[in-house]
Amino acid sequence: MTACAGVDGCKGGWVAVSSLPGELPQARVFPSFADLLEALPGDAVIAVDMPIGLPDRAGPGGRGPETLVRRHLGARQSSVFSIPSRAAVHAEPGPFASVEEWYAAHRRASDVARQTSDPPRGISIQAFGIFSKIREIDALMVTRPDLHYRVIESHPEAAFWRLNGQRAMALAKKIKGMVNPPGMEERCALLALCGLPAGFVAAAPPRGAAQDDLLDACAMLLVAQRYARGEAMPFPDPPLTDGRGVPMAIWT
């Protein structure tokens, strides 16, 4: 049995739900993705809710994988952000001394994104907010080719779609940025139905993570386990490869 982990970005860094041979799942928060890699076995399969692989130029709807999964998600498709070019993602690394500086950096990065996309497209505030985490993973994937086939990208709503018999979830996880309890309960029930301990799924998240982060990491764990068994489905199939040789696909 292969060690597997599902990972989501969170306020404290990264929340990982890991499943090691002979052990019950456990959830931990790590300040960096490198720390997370160091804490897991060297052959662990990791599925993470973060874009992996960046294009030199972005096409309609983002890189390509986003467009392919959105068509399956119905009302949940807006949760899949369009990811711009590598130049745009790396354009404004910060740090930012004020909120005003942050918004100014967003505008400059959007200018770069428009120059490197066809048709020209800026960057949403939500996407810009995760750029630091995208850069963190991108640096590791570019410099460590050994990670290419054991650290994979997924997306929670795409993962739940696959878990739910290829049907989009009926209820939103969040509404106007606030947790939607019925949507959370729907996902907890599905995760338990798919084999995760109900008590673990419903437990309080570790410090630095929110409850929705924990549920998303649980969904990522199930994707990692399917990938380890050779049962995961990539969008596109076969995966693309970016200009730095990094595989680029959303796995479900």
TrEMBL record:
Under InterPro entries, the record lists: DUF429
Q: Which Pfam families match?
A: DUF429
Q: Give the top-rank taxon of the lineage listed in the UniProt record for this protein.
A: Bacteria
Q: What is this protein called?
A: DUF429 domain-containing protein
